[in-house]
Amino acid sequence: MGAKQINLKPGEEYITLQSLLKIAGVVPTGGMVKIYLAETSVLVNGERENRRGRKLYSGDEIRLPNAVFIIK
Questions:
Q1: CA–CA distance, 45 with 27 (Å, rounded to integer)
Q2: What contacts 18, CB < 8 A, 6 or more positions away?
Q3: Rounded to the nearest 5°, which phi and psi values hold at 30?
């Protein structure tokens, strides 16, 4: 399975994990992100992450059970 690239907007330094999950269509609302992270193994650069406000920078790799995202 290939990684899906998520591009930061011009002038944007980072995106939050919550925003990524909503943009990618993994969760429909911000309120569901907290539940999703509590119940699902999400890895950021190989480490378990459960903070929805985690800042994701260019080069970060996010692994979900059925998807991989790379921040560009």
A1: 21
A2: 30, 33, 52, 53
A3: -60, -35
3-class DSSP assignment, residue 38: helix
* pLDDT 10s digits, 50-69: 999 999 999 999 999 999 99
CA distances from 55 to 1, 11, 18, 31 (A): 24, 15, 9, 18
Phi, psi of 26 (to 5 degrees): -75, -40
Three-state SS for 19? helix
pTM above 0.90, yes or no: yes
What length is written for the chain?
72
Classified as helix, coil or strand, 61 is strand
Per-residue pLDDT tens over the stretch 3-41: 999 999 999 999 999 999 999 999 999 889 999 999 999
Q: How many CB atoms lie within 10 A of CB 21?
A: 23
